[in-house]
Write a structure and sequence with these properties.
This protein is of the alpha+beta class. It has six helices and 19 strands. A hairpin with a 5-residue loop joins strand 8 and strand 9.
């Protein structure tokens, strides 16, 4: 304020304002693995005895990517569509995030705590590709023991959560997602060595045909739907399963209807090139 008073007529840009002091929090709870029929979530608290921040890393299928969910007042300034980066301290790896949206949680006492949800990109995107999994891994498995913390950065904010090495937590996650695959009636070993994964053949076309529930549109509501469908060896989709619901159920119904009626799939191929049953998971973001 003093600098502005000394320079009449000069407006300081946001970047020139004092940045908040970086925040570092030690872990205050052990890692907890929550396994359901929808997915596997690693959760840990950071800060005080009653955690100031709770972080969840969730996978809905085997793989390297995950959905990041964080709640704590340190993240109240995160905006919808915010650009965040996730730095794996102890390595040179940095993962960008996408599809960031606010996610307010409520404590048993009724207190509302700010937070956000985001998809964490774990593969480098190749030039000209729309598929995040086309490039090399951002964080190789052999680097996980060297991770000491996760630092999240957005605008001029930085919050570091001291996770400690991530090899054992991620191995527990891998075993959990293998169990998920078995529960769907599929062989984890076959799925781990596919020569081609299931892919949607009309992705660009379906993006223009997804129906925004009219009642939700009229009320200005937005939604995020994570879901999974099983794909048979002929490419036919069935068993749409909502993995996590963040919104009005009308969004869930619309997502499953559109994916089963409008989407077309090429089936997975096993290691020998033979079509086999598999699965397809994705997220639809409904935004106005």
């Amino acid at each position: 304020m003093l600098a502005a008073a000394l320079l009449p007529g000069v407006i300081l840009p946001d970047a020139a304002l004092a940045a908040p002091a970086p925040v570092t929090m030690a872990a205050s709870t052990p890692w907890n693995l929550d396994a359901t029929d929808s997915g596997c979530a690693l959760r840990r608290g950071f800060g005080g005895k009653t955690p100031d921040v709770v972080m969840s890393l969730t996978r809905y299928e085997p793989g390297d990517g995950f959905e990041l969910s964080i709640n704590g007042d340190a993240f109240e300034s995160v905006r919808p569509g915010e650009t965040l980066s996730l730095e794996w301290t102890g390595t040179d790896a940095i993962s960008p995030t996408k599809s960031v949206m606010p996610a307010v949680s409520t404590t048993p006492s009724g207190q509302k705590i700010a937070g956000f949800l985001a998809s964490v990109q774990m593969y480098q995107t190749l030039k000209g590709s729309d598929d995040d999994s086309d490039g090399p891994l951002i964080l190789a498995p052999e680097a996980l023991p060297h991770v000491t913390a996760i630092t999240l950065r957005w605008r001029n904010h930085a919050v570091t959560l001291k996770t400690g090495p991530m090899a054992k937590p991620f191995e527990a996650m891998r075993q959990c997602t293998d169990g998920l695959v078995e529960s769907w009636g599929l062989d984890p070993a076959v799925q781990a060595h596919l020569s081609r994964e299931v892919h949607m053949t009309n992705l660009r076309q379906i993006a223009t045909k997804i129906n925004y529930p009219s009642a939700m549109n009229d009320r200005g509501k937005q939604g995020r739907v994570n879901f999974r469908v099983l794909i048979d060896p002929d490419g036919k989709a069935s068993n749409c399963k909502i993995l996590r619901s963040y919104n009005d159920p009308k969004f869930d119904v619309a997502a499953c209807h559109d994916i089963l009626v409008l989407a077309r799939f090429a089936p997975a191929l096993d290691a020998s090139g033979k079509p086999v049953a598999s699965y397809y998971t994705t997220t639809i973001i409904y935004s106005i």
